[in-house]
Amino acid sequence: MSGLGLPVRLILTPGQAADAKQAEALIDGLPAGVVIADKGYDSRAIVEVIESRGAEAVIPSLSNRKEQRAYDRDRYRDRNLVERFWQKAKQYRRVATRYEKTARNFLGFAHVASIMILLR
């Protein structure tokens, strides 16, 4: 997502796959000063990839971590832009209920929903 809550890149994964496995692919090639993500993306490898690209990782630590990593709580509040985007995208029935049988077609309709949100 951009700083305005608009989608920059969408990657489709199987329902049983962890989102964090796509973290590097999501940020690959995108200029970013800050990467904001939820606790699901809290891993040393992801944070190292983000910091190696010169960006700040704003990711809260999992509660079971022995060493809690400090993060900017004020910036983390901007993560709600992602949640609000998906709430708007799910207003489009084909995205919310996944009518499409193929991943290619579903991703296409997710892109169409994104474009419609951008045009508002």
Word description of this protein:
- There is one protein chain.
- With 120 residues, the chain is mainly alpha-helical.
- It has one domain (19-119).
- Helices cover 42% and strands 5% of the residues.
- It contains 6 helices and 2 strands.
- The chain has helices at residues 23-27, 44-52, 73-76, 80-89, 93-97, 103-119, and strands at residues 34-36, 56-58.
- A two-stranded parallel ribbon has the order 1-2.
- Strand 1 (34-36), helix 2 and strand 2 (56-58) form a beta-alpha-beta unit.
- The chain is globular, with a radius of gyration of 15 Å.
- The relative contact order is 0.15.
Strand order, sheet with most strands:
1-2
How many β-strand stretches?
A: 2
Percent of residues in beta strands? 5-15%
The helix content is 40-55%
Overall pLDDT metric: 87
Helical stretch count?
6
* Protein structure class: mainly alpha
> What's the number of structural domains?
1
| Biggest sheet details | 2 strands, parallel
Shape: globular
The quaternary structure here is: single chain
Q: State the order of secondary-structure elements, H for helix, E for strand.
A: HEHEHHHH
Poorly predicted regions: none
The value of Rg in angstroms is 15 Å
**Terminal CA distance:** 16 Å
